[in-house]
Write a structure and sequence with these properties.
The complex is a heterodimer.
Chain A lengths: L1 E10 L2 E11 L4 E5 L6 H8 L7 E6 L2 E2 L5 H8 L2 E4 L11 H12 L4 H14 L15 H13 L5 E5 L7 H18 L2 E6 L2 H7 L2 E6 L2 E6 L1 H5 L4 H8 L2 E2 L2 E2 L3
Parallel strand pairs in A: 3-8, 3-9, 6-7, 7-8
Antiparallel strand pairs in A: 1-2, 1-4, 4-5, 9-10, 11-12
Helix pairs in contact in A: 3-4, 3-5, 5-6
Chain B lengths: L1 H31 L6 H39 L7 H39 L2 H7 L4 H39 L4 H11 L2 H27 L4 H31 L1
Chain lengths: 249, 255
């Protein structure tokens, strides 16, 4: 389980996270939603250990990662598989080498075993036959699928997705969703999704946390979210603005 | 008052930048001696820096030697000392021009590419991806490049020197008629081991300086394509200035 307690972060005097309290249940798919620029990706970078908070704690399976350094922090980080917003594929490596990269760098597997695992995973994400292509030779949706394959190759306990379907067409979005649900069904991993797409939340999330002005204002199920009376949530869902601000703020 | 405030602000920015560069350097030193050594990545970087820069080194080396042969001949002829041409060409190249021009050429060719590569990796979250995979980006990206720079610069400078001497020989001996025996005899008599290892030490230091600056600028690049292009330009300018400054200090020490 991921537990975030009173998390604060500011950049150049501007507070981005203002006392986040959140518990992300184990083995479930939790979406973090909120307006663009509202601090969702900053929160995500704290969860995966890329940023240190000004104050507060993040517990991963009971260990506060904000206090850990070096190998002890790395041990926790290895529990994560991360799909970055733009994929973050290594552009000098082929699709095959991108997916094989964590295995080559972090394990002692021989090349035959690596090939077997990479080919199996590329088949799962429907990218067989694309092994020799480079990231800039394939479409955005394919890049996302490669990024998912790379994140899954180490069989992580926690999968993190930053805007997994932003900018993708509906069919590719469905494919990505199917991959995400299939993955968690198979490995029972915990999934955290940062998104601003309500449709995505309703389609695949078990729980949803709404981030607004640096705080979690609602944590509920997607079904309860759409009937929520919280004016901030209502304003976000309906997308109505009044005087440049979301309605009823 | 505005002027003082401006100077003070700029001085603080400068001090902060230097502090960050030193932390980056100590981080390199820390990771340099930690396992795994990643020898394959070092060899690949040696290949990348060496091969991409070799053609430009051959060209600049040969033309530099030819110019030295030409200028040296007409200067020495005024004193009736054309026979010293071999010595003049070799000493100029081995002590000064070889290490400095090689470093400047590698900065322009491979250093700029290094800064741009790391910069693009930064803005496309590839460095974050390495970090999440528990592969320290300094250890994985920067250390191999800096080690390769230290190894490859003396090799390239040696190539530059040899090609330069050949260029000087062609102009001095084949074109202008200097006696080949005296060309090589004077060279042999005047160049001592201290000149050679002094030049190699300079090259190693320049290799360290240029890779340090270029990696640092790429690592802390600004946002977007503009940020990367600015980081690349700054990397080349700062490396070139530091190479010339360090050349002065090293020459003072090694003379």
């Amino acid at each position: 389980m991921i537990k975030i307690v009173d998390l604060w972060k500011s950049f150049n005097g501007q507070e981005v996270l203002r006392g986040i309290d959140l518990e992300i249940p184990k083995g479930k798919r939790t979406a973090i939603i909120g307006r663009s620029g509202g601090g969702k990706s900053v929160l995500l970078k704290h969860i995966i250990g890329l940023l240190k908070p000004d104050r507060g704690s993040i517990y991963i399976d009971g260990e506060d990662i904000t206090r850990l350094r070096g190998e002890r922090l790395n041990r926790i980080k290895r529990k994560f598989g991360v799909v970055f917003q733009g994929g973050a594929l290594f552009d000098s490596l082929t699709i095959y080498d991108n997916v094989a990269f964590p295995l080559r760098e972090l394990t002692d597997l021989d090349e035959e075993e690596i090939r077997e695992r990479v080919e199996r995973l590329l088949e799962e994400v429907s990218l067989s036959g694309m092994e020799g292509k480079y990231p800039d030779e394939i479409s955005g949706g394919m890049r996302k699928r490669v990024a998912i394959a790379r994140a899954m190759i180490m069989e992580p306990e926690i999968l993190v997705f930053d805007e997994p379907t932003t900018g993708l067409d509906p069919i590719t979005t469905k494919t990505i969703h199917a991959l995400m649900t299939g993955c968690s069904r198979k490995t029972n991993c915990t999934e955290v999704i940062v998104t601003h797409r309500i449709r995505e939340v309703l389609d695949i999330a078990h729980f949803v946390a709404m981030l607004h002005e640096g705080r979690i204002v609602e944590f509920t199920t997607p079904q309860e979210l759409i009937t929520s009376e919280n004016p901030i949530v209502r304003g976000f869902i309906t997308g109505k603005v009044k005087g440049g601000k979301l309605q009823d703020f | 008052m505005d002027l003082f405030a401006y100077i003070g602000r700029e001085a603080l920015v400068c001090v902060r930048e230097m502090g960050r560069m030193m932390i980056f350097f100590f981080s390199f030193l820390y990771h340099l001696f930690r396992r795994p050594l990643r020898i394959r990545r070092v060899i690949r970087e040696i290949y990348d820096i060496g091969v991409t820069s070799s053609s430009v080194i051959l060209l600049t080396g040969s033309f530099t030697g030819m110019v030295l042969g030409l200028q040296g001949y007409y200067t020495l002829r005024k004193f009736g000392s054309e026979s010293l041409l071999g010595s003049a060409v070799a000493l100029s190249l081995i002590r000064e021009l070889g290490p400095v021009l090689t470093a400047l050429m590698v900065t322009a060719r491979a250093g700029s590419a290094m800064a741009a590569e790391i910069g693009v990796m930064r803005i496309t979250e590839q460095i974050d991806a390495l970090d999440v995979m528990t592969l320290n980006p300094i250890k994985f990206l920067v250390v191999p490049k800096m080690v390769a720079g230290i190894i490859v610069l003396p090799l390239l400078a040696s190539v530059f020197n040899v090609i330069g001497i050949v260029g000087g020989y062609l102009i001095g001996v084949e074109l202008l008629g200097v006696n080949p025996g005296s060309f090589f005899h004077e060279m042999d008599a005047s160049v001592v081991f201290k000149d050679v290892y002094g030049g190699l030490i300079k090259s190693m230091v320049f290799g360290l300086v240029l890779t340090w600056v270029c990696c640092y600028k790429g690592y802390y690049t600004g946002h977007g394509a503009t940020g990367v292009s600015r980081a690349t330009t700054e990397a080349v300018v700062l490396s070139s200035v530091l190479i010339l400054a360090w050349d002065y200090f090293l020459t003072s020490v090694l003379l």
